[in-house]
Amino acid sequence: MTTTPARRDVGPPGVDSDEKSTLLAFLNYLRDAVTAKARGLADEQGRAAAVPSGTSIPGLVKHVTAAEVYWFAWAFEGAGSAPPDLSMELAEGDSAESLLAAYRVAIERSNEIIERCDDVNRPCARAAGKPRRCGRCGGSWCT
Fold this sequence. Notes:
- This protein is mainly alpha-helical and 143 residues long.
- The chain has four helices and no strands.
- It has helices spanning 19-38, 43-47, 57-77, 96-116.
């Protein structure tokens, strides 16, 4: 079994800057906290739910990876045709290593989108929130 030494909370960043810098500082603080909890977990250890809801750390990593894609690429930028699956259900092939690698890729993409944004008050390309049915085709999330 792999163990990771406990990491003390470093506390939220003290930022006295523009909105984009503040956004990135807090996102990176939270991303680092999630990554620190998942790094070094053996797959069997990580898949064990530690709370009554059944949530596991790898499941949480899978969820926040999809949330990065949902909020920044799908909703804000308008990429893709369907929103990503935000569930925490793990597939047979999901490993802590593969999930963390996917999370790093999603973070990189989100940060690129944020960096390109010249107006943080710009509305999203798509309305985000609870899925709804399309009046034209009856499906959900028409583009």
